[in-house]
Design brief:
The chain has helices spanning 22-35, 39-61. By secondary structure, the protein is mainly α. Helix 1 crosses helix 2 (39-61).
Length: 62
């Protein structure tokens, strides 16, 4: 059975930079600890919709 929380990773052509304040990072760290995950997985989960929309918008402009 496939894990519903499994993150689909696709290699991107560009690097995405996320800037967080110390408070934001600590909030993400607490969230990830509560979920039994790590911060990078939480960040990927949050950014996946943004990346998908960007890829969709970029493909329309070509």
């Amino acid at each position: 059975m496939k894990n519903e929380n499994e993150i689909k990773e696709v290699r991107l052509d560009r690097i995405i930079t996320i800037r967080l304040t110390g408070d934001d990072y600590n909030a993400l760290l607490n969230l990830s600890r509560a979920r039994g995950s790590d911060v990078s997985k939480v960040i990927r989960t949050l950014t996946t919709p943004i990346v998908n929309l960007t890829q969709k918008n970029n493909s329309k402009s070509k």
